[in-house]
Amino acid sequence: MRRILVIGSAGQLGSEIVPELRTRYGKENVVTSDIKIPTHENAINSTPFVQLDILNKEALSKCISDFNIDTIFNMASILSASGEKSPLKAWDVNLNGLINVLEVSKENNIDSIIWPSSIAAFGPTTPQTNTPNETILSPTTMYGITKVTGELLAKYYYKNYSLDTRSMRLPGIISSKTYPEGGTTDYAVEIFYGAIREKEYTSFLDENTILPMMYVDDCIKCMIDLLEADPKKLRRRVYNVTSMSFSVGELAAEIKKHIPDFKIKFKPDFRQEIANSWPKTIDDSFAREDWGWNPHYDLEMMTKDMIEKLSKRL
Ligand code: SER
Questions:
Q1: What is the pTM of this model?
Q2: How far is the CA of 184 from the centre of ligand 1 (A)?
Q3: pLDDT along the chain (314 residues), means of 10
Q4: Which ligand 1 atom sits closest to the C-alpha of 173?
Q5: Fold adopted by 174-212+244-280+297-313
Q6: Closest ligand 1 atom number to CA of residue 186
Q7: Is the CATH number of domain 4-172+215-240 3.40.50.720?
Q8: Which residues form the pocket of ligand 1, taking CB atoms under 6 Å from any ligand atom?
Q9: How many Å separate Cα 196 from the centre of its chain?
């Protein structure tokens, strides 16, 4: 049985993947860690928990040997919009943090590392429709720069130290458990809170902005399927993945089917330029061919599930 460490377990992705990992691999085999002590809601299921700063390499190494870890999910990241406000912090957490993970993994003979890259690795000169796996990676955000560099670092450790690093370029992830922080795709989560609480939402992206997205259940499946994929079948270290693409207006219209008096306004801010630099649709055929990637949720199913889950909670 794997012994898994989830770094960044209190965040949007970490908090969602931990319960599924615990179901599959056993509660005691999944150690959670975050720079923040988990909030009450997350704390319910959070032991074993270690408070850990990804920039503290010694503490990271100690945690790995204390708990006999062989598998790491590195979910700690400063996202695109926060990264533009604090570029050096994004560099530090996303890259110095990642290289700490790679170094301690090399020293402790870690078997597998899952580290998400992002659609932010692409940039304004990348083809924006059906963006291929292998294409121009010339991002204009610090977050994107850290993702491209991280991809290269992970490949370097694979090539030179046989460290089994696996990455997926995640699109915007829509989830209901933990509010996302500092991303450009966050509008697609915030809009549900607005619709359910106030029946209105002001979008920081304009009506026609189309971005690739994925529902969190598919995202969890994606990460675990890639972790468990047969190494002989993997032609890549980094895979494009997607499940749906829609505009802000299309999402609002779908929400209106459930909440007819929902009203949306548009007030684009600096995040519009970030969104404009990212693809609209993604070609993820390598992931489908190599490890059977096949998402379940489309816009209609995702919207219905988000409204049901959030309405119960809010
Ligand atoms: N969700 C991320 C962001 O918006 C993209 O990977 O920054």
A1: 0.97
A2: 5
A3: 96 94 96 86 73 97 98 98 98 98 98 98 98 98 98 98 98 94 97 98 98 98 98 98 98 98 98 98 98 98 98 93
A4: 1
A5: UDP-galactose 4-epimerase; domain 1 (3.90.25)
A6: 4
A7: yes
A8: 79-80, 118-120, 143, 170, 172, 183-185
A9: 24
